[in-house]
Amino acid sequence: MKSARVLGMVWYRTCCLSSKRLGDEIRPLITPNASIIARFLKSYPVQTFLSPPNQCTTGGRWRAIAALSSVQAKFLHRAHTKRLNLVDVQLTESIQSKQFHSNDQKSIQAAAPATAPAPAPTPATRSVPLSHLKDNFLDGTSSNFLEELQRAWEQDPNSVDESWQVFFRNFTGQSQPSPRAFAGPAVVGSESIQENMRLLLLIRAYQVNGHMKAQLDPLELDRRAVPQELDLAYNNFGERDLDREFSLGFAQMGGVLAESRPPQTLRSIVQRLEQAYCGTTGYEYMHIPDRDKCNWLRERIEAVNPRKFPVEKKTQILDRLIWSSQFENFLAQKWTAAKRFGLEGCETLIPGMKELIDKAADLGVESVVIGMPHRGRLNVLGNVVRKPLRQIFNEFSGGIKPAEVEAGGYTGSGDVKYHLGTSYDRPTTSGKTIHLSLVANPSHLEAVAPVVIGKTRAKQYYSQDTKRLKHMAVLLHGDGSFSGQGVVYETLHLSDLINYSTGGTVHIVVNNQVAFTTDPKYSRSSPYCTDVAKALCAPIIHVNGDDVEAVVHACELAAEWRCKFHADVVVDIVCYRRFGHNEIDEPNFTQPRMYQVIKKHKPSLDIYIKKLNDSGEIKMDMIQSMQDRVMSILSDEFNHSKDYVPKKRDWLAAFWAGFKGPEQLSRVRNTGVNPDILKEVGKKITHLPSTFSPHRAIKKIYEQRLQMIETGQGVDWATAEALAFGTLVAEGNHIRLSGQDVERGTFSHRHAVLHDQKTGERLCPLHHVVQNQAQEMFTVSNSSLSEFGVLGFELGYSMENPNSLVLWEGQFGDFANGAQVIFDQFLSSGEAKWLRQTGLTVLLPHGYDGQGPEHSSARLERFLQMSDDDPFVIPEVEASLRKQIQEVNWQVVNVTTPANYFHVLRRQIHRDFRKPLVVMSPKNLLRHQACKSNLTEFDDVEGHPGFDKQGTRFKRLIKDQSNHSDNEPGIRRLVLCSGKVYYELEEERQRLASTDVAICRIEQLCPFPYDLVQRELRRYPNAEIAWCQEEPMNMGSFQYVSLRLATTMSHIGRGQFEDIKYVGRPTSAATATGFGNLHNTEQKGLVRKALQKEPLD
Ligand SMILES: Cc1ncc(C[n+]2csc(CCOP(=O)(O)OP(=O)(O)O)c2C)c(N)n1
Ligand SMILES: [Mg+2]
């Protein structure tokens, strides 16, 4: 009874420490009071104790554990005497691991007594595995309760929870016991139990907190308090116990606790644990709820014979470290004043990464997509990705722009050398070849992370790598960025999402313990910079960056983990930065003490050379000759770099072959579809199987869609979109639409995925456009609630293969600014900087319908401001020279008809180049009676509306719908507008029965349709020219349009900028008013003004 209370106290303390709020609730439970425990045990089936923590509420689990505390030892005893091995081990594991899952080191220490509380143990006569214990000390109310429960079960098995039924069946031997369980029980006293429990706690303490004692910091500046739990005395062990043998074997456990381990002395157990957990590698994995994963790690970490590298391997590691170190030295010598963000202080990254890649290749990985920041990028490019050194050196010297060697000149604006990306096929040590691509990135730290993941996922799609074994992502991070940038978290959270997973990313943190000039204590609140990854239950391997073999071990383990469990893993290389943030920065201004230490600190290569030399494993003359060889190759490459001629841009490789750069004309193509195909696809995408029970309202919507297809009348927005997707799929293209709630559509209009009302089963009619269509060919997926992460992902996805239409939809256009970095740094400028094209399409709901400042504007003005078409230059109109759309950085459209939406989506694919497309999507037009198109506007039949000599196409401008001739001198005003305000203007015109005002819609704002605007200006020679928008004057498209409109007007002698009449809201700080009445007044006012009889002022 007393012992039970002691055990109860242990658990109680654990519970209280981990969740102080639960203390009062738990306190009564540790007193073995049958009725209370009964109540709790009834509420908590066996699984509550056994299931991973994430499968029951934390509070529930703690309460359950507390309830169990006083009966736990009874279970051990009973279970073993009745040959039930499994349950007790699981119970022990589950409870004890819970204690140690708390990483709140400070609180554990604070709550723990200063000295060991319990009396020194009496040495046991012999070692006894816990699984062989037999004791009968547990009398009392807790066991009484169990007996009562057992009696109740014996009388009526169904009177207790099913889990307890199973338990008692096992308990009484009514189930088949495992053969292992027949090992003969040994009889020992309660002290032995306690002693074994304490040893278990000690082992657990190493597993959980060993990393706190590990020698991770090469500079030894990080003086962390060693947790008390790792102290023998704290666990009531002393010198005299060190040579006693203990046998701890458990089924279900790996590592030191594995059943197969022979009895060991306490000394050897502790030694092993110290080596495993407190050397130059620290492991954090006890937050992982999965027992198998933990055991897998334990087996490797606690292996009896820790991995030892043979001399050949050490030679290879040395060679790689020489390359890494000398590469930086060489650059430093040749370009003394250049910024290169060198790797000095973390040179071991290179042998580590190479090992990671070799190991991954051995395990079946065929290609690795790498994303990394500035630090060490050139070194990685040269030594890991194997970009030719002469090319790197050439670029370093300023290089020749690719344009100078390519006819036509498509150079873009270029980027600094440490941002450029590249890809190569690299042979591995085991004779395989692995494709490595380093993705170009902007300076914005971590922004490339989701892009890399998206690209990896696309590679997996195109190579049918459904198990995600062939393509792997590796992301490198800085310590400051990993903990500081939110997109890290947003990217991590994509890792296990069905439509975003890549089967695990290997993260490597170059943790130089400083971010620019900021110390970690000022840049993060978590103990480790990697703590964010714990949210994913990823193992985190901290490793001292001076120990190259440990770094190589860590990277090897990371590759194995990723390939085994298809999940993320983090290697945190704790290192230092030998120089300032860049080579011309003075670090002593801000980190004087650190840099005093760094100044005296030997480089990792010197440390390794000394180690190998001291041990006699590799002789000094051999090391010298290895170094000489590397130096001579570097010098050779440098000499060749001077006359290095860059090759043709490499984005044309693979899937992009045949695609055109802006210097090569791509002709406008027909986007209309054969009417039979259109109908056929229309039927497929509106077909619901008879076995499917849709929601009534959605059934009706689908019936209406079918009717639209059959009658060819009144096709709405959602149907037009589905037709665009369906016809593109029928043509063999891959479609991927992702974003928040896109399956149904924020405005409940899309219903691309239906849910059976009886079974909950999902149905996506667009999966069935062609026979045996692979589901993923049309992917529509609700995403995580992230803009930055998900848009970045889709961007990366879109860049892999041009034969796909990849779309991201913002919930409301407002939220796009959460992904602003992707728009600014990648989408609007990526082609210019890195010569990489993408046809990524972004749908941003936009429009003023009184929903207030946060749901009205997609900030159209920002997209237009970033557009690079020249406002003062009328582009070439001659068809054979017309490349305006190829030369612009992106397209921005504000489309007003379903048919035009259909064509603009199809146009993304039906051209020989790729260009980002930003669509201001409608909201109230989705159900607007006038916003409908006829099927004849979608097809490619001569004579049908929209058909011209180039077939049916997207209309960049929609002229007035009043059948005006080419010359309408009687029109007194031409109102130019864009977007849904058109319908309000049209309604007002009809209300006024006005015939002397023309209304023209500019559907494509960027690039500006100079040619068509000119045509309309000429059509109405006497008209006053007005620009009408619903956005405030400092927003919307006024500023963008007015400059270009003025250029057009002056070009044809129709006036100047001052002659443009503005009709719209006045300037404003907020995008819209939050008062409904005011909105209506404003909206009506601007519409009336646009059509007023009097001339505009
Ligand atoms: C999003 C973003 N914010 C700020 C910066 C400016 N900046 C460049 S490097 C750097 C420090 C990065 O620290 P860390 O991630 O630890 O990498 P390290 O330079 O130490 O390798 C900062 C703040 C940036 N590039 N990107
Ligand atoms: Mg840093």
UniProtKB/TrEMBL annotation:
One of its GO terms (cellular component) is oxoglutarate dehydrogenase complex. GO terms for molecular function: metal ion binding; oxoglutarate dehydrogenase (succinyl-transferring) activity; thiamine pyrophosphate binding. SMART domains: Transket_pyr (SM00861). Coiled coil: none annotated. Its cofactor is Mg(2+); thiamine diphosphate. Pfam families: 2-oxogl_dehyd_N, E1_dh, OxoGdeHyase_C, Transket_pyr. PANTHER family: 2-OXOGLUTARATE DEHYDROGENASE (PTHR23152), OXOGLUTARATE DEHYDROGENASE (SUCCINYL-TRANSFERRING) (PTHR23152:SF36). This is 2-oxoglutarate dehydrogenase, mitochondrial. The lineage of its organism: Eukaryota, Viridiplantae, Streptophyta, Embryophyta, Marchantiophyta.
